[in-house]
Amino acid sequence: MxxxxxxxxxxxxxxxxxxxxxxxxxxxxxxxxxxxxxxxVKKLKEKKDELDSLITAITxxxxxxxxxxxxxRTLDGRxxxxxxKGFPHVVYARLWRWPDLHKNELKHVKYCQxxxxxxxxxxxxxxxxxxxxxxxxxxxxxxxxxxxxxxxxKDEYDYENQQSHSSSESHLQTIQHPPSxxxxxxxxxxxxxxxxxxxxxxxxxxxxxxxxxxxxxxxxSWSRNSSFSPAVPQHQNxxxxxxxxxxxxxxxxxxxxxxxFQPPISNHPAPEYWCSIAYFEMDVQVGETFKVPSTCPTxxxxxxxxxxxGDRFCLGQLSNVHRTENIxxxxxxxxxxxxxxxxxxxxxxxxxxxxxxVFVQSYYLDREAGRAPGDAVHKIYPSAYIKVFDLRQxxxxxxxxxxxAQAAAAAQAAAVAGNIPGPGxxxxxxxxxxxxxxxxxxxxxxxxxxxxxxxxxxGWGPDYPRQSIKETPCWIEIHLHRxxxxxxxxxxxxxIADPQPLD
Length: 503
Hints:
- The protein is of the alpha+beta class and 503 residues long.
- The protein is built from 11 helices and 19 strands.
């Protein structure tokens, strides 16, 4: 080894591995990191120039330019280390740069000749040939930072489009929502952190700020005299969302901002229960549906065993004769679970209390991330506090879909009758076929807008071996009653078409 204690490719593998281990970020266990680094160094022993490039890049934290560091691409593109599979450039970027990295957040630098997305026979795993990116369209105007939070703006923030990443994936993707406050495992802090003032008198605002109504008395109502919770600023984008965790102090602060005083969407009385929660193991519902009274705007779903109900749904008390060992093991990790909070007329926020992430299917988050409804799975990290349902947005969406379906059905009927002549029309059949998809929107499709699904511990989608939430060991389905009330009103306002003979 050289006098400066920095090894070269001529040194023994053990010396090189020991030096590179000193620069790991700590997101992985020491044993996994050691095996991953040993595997890479052995593969590069015959390519001394690339091994020297890797040593230079890692030991200088990318301060000096370095060449591509390549390994052979596998058939499925993934690397197996210690029984775990992952994309190689992501594995090593996590080890040496960003321990909380998600694979969709990497974009290669322009001078990288063997980047993973280029589909070459060899893959570059040099962590400093990749940058961490967020999606475009983030409004950073008007953002303020608390003096107690350090501002770390790193070079991994790149506001270019990520189409090159999403194009190679199946349509369902996992979008991450880490907590905004730094933890021992965090290696960076998002510059758009907007922590709530400890005094509770005011909060920073941005283009994404929302002021959510909170009940001030046991009888839910949304009059102008009610008290409201403070603004909870959000930084939302397709791949990273950081939400400052709000301390639960048991009271609500009055806010004079007129945005808070929105009239209710409907004059229909508030439902007796604001939501009902069904618990599933794989595709089987376990136990009875748990109803949350409107007098309890906050409910906790956890893995403990208190059967008293009220504002706690304890999954640990539920038995299932068909429960497998894998399900039992996953249930042990639910722990403190999650907290659901109903604000205003029916907006819903989630706080992850567990030591493990929860995974959410949310049309609201899909829309905020610029994705089609049902197009993504959202990973909510421990301590994260995030809005997952917006009642007004849902109401607009159900009105729009219902109107579209009604118009399409009417046009389809006219087309079948031959009343819509046009190019390519043969007796009205072609137009009818083109309209069938829109006309096929039914009550079940609209009802899905009023439902949230969340799994504990295990995710689903292309990043996981489970393709559907019904393949996860423990998950819940939440029916939002105020939204269902509004849907019922929307359906009642639609004129009923004349019944057609079945023959």
